[in-house]
Amino acid sequence: MEEKRILYVSSEVVPYLAENEVSLMSYDVPKMVNDQGGQIRIFMPRYGNINERRHQLHEVIRLSGMNLVVNDLDMPLIIKVASIPKERIQVYFIDNDEYFKRKATFADEDGVLFPDNDERAIFFAKGVVETVKKLNWVPDIIHVHGWMAALLPVYMKHYYKDEALFADTKIVTSVYGQSFDGNLNLELSNKIQFDGVPASALSELAIPSYENIIKTAVNHSDAVIIASENLSSSLTKYIESTGKPFIPFVPKDQFAQAYTSFYKDSVL
Known about the structure:
Blueprint: E1 5-10, H1 21-35, E2 39-45, H2 52-55, E3 58-59, E4 67-70, E5 73-76, E6 78-84, E7 89-95, H3 97-100, H4 117-135, E8 141-145, H5 152-157, E9 170-175, H6 188-193, H7 210-219, E10 223-226, H8 233-242, E11 246-247, H9 255-267
Parallel strand pairs: 1-2, 1-8, 2-7, 8-9, 9-10, 10-11
Antiparallel strand pairs: 3-6, 4-5, 6-7
Helix pairs in contact: 7-8
């Protein structure tokens, strides 16, 4: 993997949020590539429950200051950065007071999903790509983890399809077990269509459930990794039916070799 550039875009990453399947793999996989001499960048949202002082986040003024349009509203983009201790790995945080200042990730204290999670996901996807453009850093692979990041493949294949910077970039999506019940805002598809994405590409999002959001990400990815041992049979069968390159679940003690081979043989 030496000199290959991989952009990791994740809903959650340790040590900034609690340990779970998504946050752990969003740390372990980039570390593995970094240790092999690859070049990596990690992006995640800057949720309000991340302790900025403890993790030494600081704003990157030269990258901040843009406005992103979400459903016809101008939303300021703030970029922060921190380094994972001892690993020489930088993590970029997509921030906006309206979307990410609240002291929780996806739901309120009663477990009710935030009603604007759909717009938060749109803002995150566009914020990542706009920041990477400002960095002028061309990834060979974009590897997506977690549902909050799942709209990025859609935007890459449509909204940013004419960006020369990403002409040769491949998208890999890791698929995890269900992480929320119910649906996001039923207007999600219309809000994405506002950005010129055709309705035909968003048919799964008529009902924006967890599975349908992931199916949409899979549809717009070049390759897929099944990252949960307990993935639903319906999602597993859907991934198999697409004909896209994929690898089945691999235990943590074996993932390094499997992922490296997959990157090289099926994606790059």
